[in-house]
Amino acid sequence: MLSYLLARSGVGIALLERHQDLDREFRGYFFQPLVLKLFDQIGLLDKILQIPHQHVDVFKFVDHGKMLFEVRFDELDPPYNYGLNMPQPPLLEFFIREASQFPNFTYFGGTTAKELMKQDNSVIGLKARSAEGEIELRSRLVVGADGRYSTIRKLADMSQTMDKFEFDFVWFDMPKRLEKDYPLQIKIEDRGMLIYIPKGEDLVQVGWVIRKKTYPELVKKGIDDFIRTLIAVEPDLQDALPQYLTSFKQCSVLDIQVGMTDEWVKDGLLLIGDAAHIASPFSGQGNSLAIQDAVVAHDAIMKAIASLARCKSRR
Ligand SMILES: Cc1cc2nc3c(=O)[nH]c(=O)nc-3n(C[C@H](O)[C@H](O)[C@H](O)COP(=O)(O)OP(=O)(O)OC[C@H]3O[C@@H](n4cnc5c(N)ncnc54)[C@H](O)[C@@H]3O)c2cc1C
């Protein structure tokens, strides 16, 4: 998003992505309504809504069958009165396609940032590696938008304060059963906590909350034991789940971390998104925070460029 905005504003941009494709498993599909407004303000909402997606009207928290509370997106002012459920890969591809219209934008897929280039205390570019070899990119600003395990943050020696978080999530995808709809919800019962995130027309992403670092114990007890526990929380899964979930190979464990990088900025360097702050996954805020960072960063960078230009014209 930041690359697109800067490219559109005429700034020379090199966007690096270490993976060849953007098809990342188990990434959040949910975007807060505020993101719709931001997409609209940059003039791309109508095009983005052509990507297959679903509207999310409500986010429910159900405790032992009773509604604890619900977040009603449909009570917000229209037209931004729904959450957006949209897979990340086509959205990322869309932004890269849009940015590629500008000759000042270059995309380096399958290219991993490896080393910061420094002069005195300033960052003046980076070295990266791809299948073709090493490249050196000199730039006035390096933006670390490389996620929660940010290489850029580590290379810049920027410390991070982590909150204590006692839980991890186990995720798996389940086909939506025709007779039952699983809206976005968190369901709490004696045996545990289930999270449903609708994922496209046919799938629902199911999350199971476990005590931190206890995934190996869950695996050791076996898949049948896991299925029994899930059915104790959601008896409706009795028929479908044993047929569908047959192995822990279908599951992925998310080591939940919540934290904030102590500094986000150094001379020639900026961190945004998860690289700067990792939000609790419970309320689906990470995507929206990362997008807001991009919008604010674009504004700040363009003001800085404009004030340098003002300096020149005043001279
Ligand atoms: C299982 C799961 C479910 C989630 N659900 C939601 C949700 O429903 N809603 C929500 O708002 N948030 C959700 N989140 C959080 C959300 O995915 C993140 O907050 C968001 O993706 C952060 O965006 P980002 O651009 O900062 O980082 P990322 O999306 O992590 O992107 C970082 C990118 O940098 C690339 N990269 C990393 N290192 C390098 C390197 N050295 N060189 C080049 N490229 C590199 C990575 O390959 C990646 O493509 C979820 C997260 C997880 C893990």
Describe this structure in words.
It contains nine helices and 21 strands. It is α+β, with helices and mostly antiparallel strands and 315 residues long. The strands form six sheets. A seven-stranded mixed sheet has the order 5-4-14-15-16-13-17, with helices on one face. A three-stranded antiparallel sheet has the order 2-6-3. A hairpin with a 2-residue loop joins strand 9 (122-130) and strand 10 (133-138).
Task: Describe the structure concisely for a colleague.
By secondary structure, the chain is of the alpha+beta class. It has nine helices and 21 strands. 28% of the residues lie in helices and 33% in strands.
List the helices and strands and how they pair.
Layout: H1 2-8, E1 13-17, E2 30-31, H2 33-41, H3 45-48, E3 54-56, E4 58-63, E5 66-72, E6 83-85, H4 88-99, E7 105-109, E8 112-119, E9 122-130, E10 133-138, E11 142-144, H5 151-155, E12 160-162, E13 167-175, E14 185-189, E15 192-199, E16 203-211, H6 215-221, H7 223-233, H8 240-244, E17 252-254, E18 259-261, E19 265-266, E20 269-271, E21 277-278, H9 286-314
Parallel strand pairs: 1-7, 4-14, 11-20
Antiparallel strand pairs: 2-6, 3-6, 4-5, 8-9, 9-10, 12-18, 13-16, 13-17, 14-15, 15-16, 18-21, 19-20
Helix pairs in contact: 1-4, 1-9
The structure holds flavin-adenine dinucleotide.
